[in-house]
Amino acid sequence: MLSTNLTSATAPSNPGEKRFLEVKDSKTGKIIKINVEEGNAIRSVAFEQLDLVCLDPGFMNTAISRSSISYIDGEKGILRYRGYDIEELAEKSSFLEVAFLLINGELPDRNQLNLWEERVTKHSYLHENMVTLLKQFRYDAHPMGMVISSIAAMGTFYEDANPSLQGSDLFLKGADKDCVKVDSLRFKQIYRILGKLPTIAASAYRHRIGKPYNNPVNNLNYTGNFLYMLDRLSEVNYHPNPVLARALEKLWIIHAEHEMNCSTAAMRHLSSSRVDPYTSIAGASGALYGPLHGGACEAVLHMLEEIGTKENIPKFIEEVKQRKKKLMGFGHRIYRSYDPRAKIVKKVADEVFQVLGKEPMIEIAVELEQIALNDPYFKERKLYPNVDFYTGLVYKCLGFPADYYPVLFLIPRCAGWLAHWIESLEDPEVKIFRPKQVYTGIDHRKYVPLNHRKPAQANNADALRSFISPMSKRRSND
Ligand code: ACO
């Protein structure tokens, strides 16, 4: 057993006194002192002195870095980007302004914003080979697969941005390096990614509906141009509805960043190997796609469709409590009270409904939320709606197919990922991510040649066969 004394814990007797843990290993009697650093952090590596490893599946209590990009208070339901409340940013800022804030740490002044918008906008055209690549996907390919592959492929167009070709410290600053050059190179990739991603995403959408891809235009803002690329048919001067473009922009602002979640951690993980940012973003996008993360929005819609009517809600809630089902769009690792983004989405929903009419499934969602919020099962576990609970309904009302929702999450989240990329490049403590494992396998055994082996004792022996398609059966000579 380990015993731990927290010395000068919450209220140090002497304010100048350093806080530390004193940990005693009952097996060896060895005592170690671990300093408590800024942010109530202790170094796991200290336990190596006791020959111990910290086991933390799911990173329940492990910080992988220090970060000054966004702040969440899960108990109070607060989310801030660089110190600014998310509610104020959603109301008053544009998406590109927020992207500037996240990546550079401060809100831009007018000139900086103009330059930023101009640079991003001028990087929105796709190379024709990228267009050809997109066109090769099956007519019904999932748009996330198309977008993720295209982001990875983007890296192949920019030799100058590939540390594997140019040197592993390509994006790092150092005594012998021209820092302005390094910053310019970093910004070039940021402009390319922020600029081209909406074009790739819009092309994936057009591919799905069998329409020719639209080129971007420079006279609309970020979301306006995106809606233009989605929706322009033969109009010479098509203009998307400004209320809808602004509604989408608000959703993108609140989706731009959310500290060290699954996909951002993936972004940091991949970047720690110093791979190019396109590959890192493709990897982070893969993490985002999962139904427990950015894919939840799509899953919420399927859940509401399955529930079908208000009358079926109590039965569904019972099934959730019996753990047969999951209430998608509810619960969060960090928020233990209402997710502040969910409140903003509810307001945006009203703005969109005023233009396009109410999405009928909202009635089921509101009722489901009320029943869950008043049920002891959800109260005890502090389960509240998260950002995905209502977002899917807004996207449905806006006419997006459900499998496109994760793409609408991915586009804005790139701003946050890029901010983390820059922050990790500037962090002198960053090392390649290499977690440990606690090995539970066989210690050592002798190799048996193939002809002398007995059949492997596998629980899944039947599944090894996988399933055989009717076509394979037809072709089989057995
Ligand atoms: N429905 C029913 N029960 C739930 C739900 C839910 N949505 N979420 C958590 N619980 C229960 C768990 O069963 C568990 O109960 P127990 O203590 O009796 O075993 C308890 O609440 C704690 O849940 P955990 O799974 O331990 O919480 P964790 O922090 O690991 O998971 C997560 C968080 C993945 C978001 C989870 O709440 C979930 O799966 N929610 C549904 C998917 C979803 O909406 N994801 C989007 C998150 S927001 C985003 O990524 C943008």
Automatic annotation (TrEMBL):
Pathway: Carbohydrate metabolism
Coiled-coil intervals: none
InterPro entries documented for this protein: Citrate_synth-like_lrg_a-sub, Citrate_synth-like_sm_a-sub, Citrate_synthase, Citrate_synthase_AS, Citrate_synthase_bac-typ, Citrate_synthase_sf
Active-site positions on this chain: 332, 388
GO BP terms, alphabetized: monocarboxylic acid metabolic process; tricarboxylic acid cycle
Keyword entries, A-Z: Transferase, Tricarboxylic acid cycle
GO-annotated molecular function: acyltransferase activity, acyl groups converted into alkyl on transfer
Top-level taxonomic group: Eukaryota
PROSITE patterns: CITRATE_SYNTHASE
UniProt family annotation: Belongs to the citrate synthase family.
Protein name: Citrate synthase
Organism of origin: Naegleria gruberi (Amoeba)
